[in-house]
Amino acid sequence: MTGKIIINAERCKGCGLCVAVCPASLIIISEQSNKNGYFPAESVTKEVKSEGNSECTGCAMCAIVCPEAVIEVLREDSGKIDITIEPVKTSKPNLIEEKK
Ligand code: SF4
Ligand code: SF4
């Protein structure tokens, strides 16, 4: 099975988690920052990457681990896959319990 990912670079925070988990080493951190000042992740093809020749399997590990939920995974045999794992986001920090 071959896959492909699409990263929304403008919403990426450049944390590098996706880079760390990709078993095929197909994700790198860009040298150019996005409009928010973060250096976003970007995918590379197996032809571009420096070592090995593994290609994207569509395993979705990168999308699952992404705290910003900005990676979409497509698989060649089953079309677009919607990633349903969303980070839990609250409208305000919940570090201090509010007094009643
Ligand atoms: S879907 Fe899997 S193989 Fe493809 S880029 Fe993401 S982690 Fe790597
Ligand atoms: S895990 Fe998500 S936020 Fe972090 S670098 Fe990858 S795409 Fe960007």
Structure characterization notes:
The chain is α+β, with helices and mostly antiparallel strands. The protein has one domain (3-81): Alpha-Beta Plaits, CATH 3.30.70.20. Helix content is 10%, strand content 19%. The protein contains 2 helices and 5 strands, in the order βαββαββ. Strands 1-4-5 form a 3-stranded antiparallel sheet. It has a two-stranded antiparallel sheet with strand order 2-3. The protein binds iron/sulfur cluster (2 copies).
**N-to-C terminal Cα separation, in Å?**
54 Å
* Fraction in helix: 10-25%
Radius of gyration: 16 Å
Report the β-strand fraction as a percent range. 15-25%
Low-confidence stretches: 87-91
Integer average pLDDT: 81
CATH topology (level 3) name: Alpha-Beta Plaits
Domains, number: 1
- The top-level CATH class is Alpha Beta
User: Largest beta sheet: what is the strand line-up?
Assistant: 1-4-5
Going by helix content, strand content and strand pairing, the class is alpha+beta
- Distinct bound molecules: iron/sulfur cluster
Biggest pleated sheet? 3 strands, antiparallel
The best one-word shape is globular
The helix-strand sequence is: EHEEHEE
> Can you count the helices?
2
Number of strands: 5
CATH arch. level architecture: 2-Layer Sandwich
What tags apply to this protein structure?
10% helix, alpha+beta, two-stranded antiparallel sheet, 100 residues, Alpha-Beta Plaits, binds iron/sulfur cluster, single chain, 5 strands, 3-stranded antiparallel β-sheet
